[in-house]
Amino acid sequence: MQELTTYQLFCKIRGETSIEPVGSTYADEHKIIAQSETHELASYLIEEVANVAQTKGNEYSIEKARNYAIKWLKDIRNYIDEIIEENDTDENSN
After folding, report:
1. From CA 76, how far away is CA 48, in angstroms rounded?
2. Longest dimension (CA), the chain
3. Is residue 76 part of a domain?
4. pTM score, two decimals?
């Protein structure tokens, strides 16, 4: 039996549907539903990481987890900011 990564397992549960639109109304309606499910899962996971980032305590393991969570959130924020800026630039050039 093949071992699945967490991402592969989620994709199977989601029906192995890519969320990238293809320009077909029928197909893209299904992709929008899959995208919505993906957003919901991402929101839950980000909230979990944010809770770790807000954990109080001076113990080494707590500080390590908190710092790791904060670094990841900053990296994701920078990535998201780049995507939004790129999209804003594309819209302004039209």
Report:
1. 14
2. 54
3. yes
4. 0.78
Domain count, the chain: 1
Quote the DSSP letter at residue 58: -
CA distances from 26 to 15, 47, 72 (A): 16, 32, 36
Tens digits of residue pLDDT in 56-71: 999 999 999 999 999 9
Residue 1 lies in a domain: no
* Buried/exposed code over 1-37 (b: 16+ C-beta within 10 A; e: otherwise): eeeeeeeeeebeebeeeebeeeeeeeeeeebeebbeb
23: containing domain: 6-92
C-alpha span between 31 and 37 (Å, rounded): 10
CA nearest to 46, candidates 79, 18, 8, 9: 79
Distance CA 66, CA 60 (A): 10
